[in-house]
């Protein structure tokens, strides 16, 4: 079964996830086809704007519901984290105290599976699309149909234009990874290494429990990085910051490409951007608290900081000069450079 019961996570997630918008079967089929067509139509404009080329035989986007999104991400989390758990246990030693009996292990796996399922259920109603890195499997671009319908309806924007807008952003992520094959393995490796580094030993776990009771209010403050920010050492925070810088780059670049492509292909792109930005700011209080607890509010800043970085670099050295960023892990931006695009320009271009 392993350390997390991922099948139980899927079951829990499916039970807890909010119901999607009410549509007829015919409407659902039509929406899926429209999203699939919008994803295909986004390929050439995105490649042209980003000036990145990918294989012509790249698979089509997968248009999924919330339950399928949960299942795919549970499988990816399993492939990402299970080897990490093994490494953590090996690092701590393999004595009897480190190896629980079968009953305790099964119960623990169910508990952590339920926790993972609850998190996936929350995220499944928020995510519009995702390029699944699929460690150990086949990467794929996923678009979550009920969420695209739901957000377009909530915002009161043109559904076809919103559909195209989302596909431009997510297609950029596919291009980032397929045009630069080394990037996927680099991110997977970095994430696994960081997870091993962040795992506390029994002594540190006791310290963290006490720290949590003393400083929990900090987690819910505006701008918080969530529990991770509370539990990490300065050295760990530096590693997290550099990995976050790469995520900021990816999200910011997708936002820039999406908005640059938009005016020529999406008539209401300015209206959509304004309404979407307003929605980000106007999340309800319970939703905001959970986002802060999980550090997801910090993710929203990735879009803004990353987009400012991309536009700053492109203004200085153009799109081709910016694309030097994809040459190797050494040319990816450091945390301090996300806030100072010219620092990256000086380091990479001299």
From TrEMBL:
Q: Which residues cross the membrane?
A: none
Q: Does the keyword Hydrolase apply?
A: yes
Question: What keywords tag this UniProt record?
Answer: Hydrolase, Metalloprotease, Protease
In terms of InterPro entries, this protein maps to: CHP03883_F420-assoc, Zinicin_2, Zinicin_2_N
User: Which Pfam families does the UniProt entry name for this protein?
Assistant: Zincin_2
Q: Which GO terms describe its molecular function?
A: metallopeptidase activity
Highest taxon above the source species: Bacteria
**What name does the UniProt record give this protein?**
Zinc-dependent metalloprotease
């Amino acid at each position: 079964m392993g350390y997390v019961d991922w099948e139980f996570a899927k079951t829990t997630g499916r039970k807890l996830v909010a119901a999607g918008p009410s549509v007829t079967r015919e409407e659902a089929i039509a929406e899926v086809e429209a999203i699939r067509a919008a994803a295909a139509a986004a390929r050439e404009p995105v490649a042209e704007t980003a000036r990145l080329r990918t294989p012509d035989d790249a698979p089509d986007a997968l248009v999924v519901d919330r339950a399928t999104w949960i299942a795919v991400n549970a499988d990816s989390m399993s492939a990402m984290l299970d080897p990490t758990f093994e490494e953590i246990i090996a690092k701590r030693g393999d004595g009897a105290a480190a190896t629980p009996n079968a009953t305790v292990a099964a119960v623990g796996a169910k508990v952590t599976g339920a926790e993972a399922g609850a998190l996936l259920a929350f995220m499944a109603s928020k995510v519009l699309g995702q390029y699944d890195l699929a460690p150990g499997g086949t990467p794929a671009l996923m678009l979550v149909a009920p969420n695209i319908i739901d957000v377009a309806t909530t915002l009161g924007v043109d559904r076809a234009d919103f559909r195209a807008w989302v596909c431009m952003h997510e297609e950029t992520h596919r291009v980032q990874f397929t045009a630069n094959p080394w990037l996927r393995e680099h991110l997977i490796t970095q994430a696994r290494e960081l997870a091993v580094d962040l795992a506390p030993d029994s002594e540190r776990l006791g310290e963290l429990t006490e720290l949590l009771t003393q400083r929990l209010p900090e987690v819910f403050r505006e701008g918080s990085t969530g529990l991770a920010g509370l539990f990490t050492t300065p050295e760990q925070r530096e590693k997290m910051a550099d990995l976050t810088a790469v995520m900021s780059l990816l999200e910011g670049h997708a936002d820039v490409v999406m908005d640059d492509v938009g005016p020529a292909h999406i008539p209401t792109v300015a209206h959509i951007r304004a309404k979407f930005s307003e929605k980000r700011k106007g999340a309800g209080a319970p939703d905001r608290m959970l986002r802060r607890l999980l550090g997801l509010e910090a993710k929203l800043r990735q879009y803004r900081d990353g987009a400012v970085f991309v536009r700053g670099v492109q203004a200085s050295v153009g799109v081709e000069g910016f694309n030097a960023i994809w040459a190797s892990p050494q040319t990816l931006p450091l945390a301090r450079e996300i806030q100072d695009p010219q620092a990256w320009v000086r380091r990479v271009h001299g």
